[in-house]
Amino acid sequence: MLPLYSKEELGQLNFDLEGKTAIITGGTAGIGNATVEYFLAQGANVVMSGRNPAVYDMAREMGGSKAVGVQGNICDSEHCKELVRTAAEQFGQIDILVNCAGTTILGNSEDLAEEDWKRLIEEIRPPGFFMARLGEKYWMEQRIKAALLMWLPRAE
Questions:
Q1: In the predicted model, is pLDDT for residue 154 greater than 60?
Q2: CATH classification of the domain holding 41
């Protein structure tokens, strides 16, 4: 289990991103891509993940040597391991995990088949768990005190 911050320590945390390294899943589109842009603008190193083969070029264009793209499916635990390895090898540390990967089905909810809803939930939930588990393992091995914030949608 990760060590917890006291209320006093939480009040003293530095949220400056300069020189920090973040893994951002879903970095090729939407909120994930906007997060990559923001982190880079704030001076962070970024390892961005996406299924889009353009992820390599996007990373280079967005951040030069401060960004690395890794193509793959975040639902695959081996891809998650590759993200952690890449961040540690390229930048020597992992400070932040941002899970933005996801999928959607466009249309009215009344037209959504139950099978599609179940598939949607199965594609959203595993990445957060895989990345959180790997992040916690990395931080514990490195003896880094970290805060892990997660939101996982709950299937009803």
A1: no
A2: 3.40.50.720
pLDDT tens for 16-45 read: 889 999 999 999 998 899 999 999 999 999
Q: Is 52 within the bounds of a domain?
A: yes
At 145, is the pLDDT very low, low, confident or very high (cuts 50, 70, 90)? low
Q: Helix %, strand %, coil % for the chain, to 5?
A: 50, 15, 40
pTM as predicted:
0.77
**Domain count of the chain?**
1
Position 146 in a domain? no
In a domain, 148, yes or no: no
Rounded CA separation 154/34 (Å): 25
Domain that holds residue 91: 7-141
Q: Do the beta carbons of residue 147 and residue 6 sit within 8 Å?
A: no
| Residue 143, number of CB atoms within 10 A of its CB | 7
Closest CA to 17 of 93, 128, 130: 93
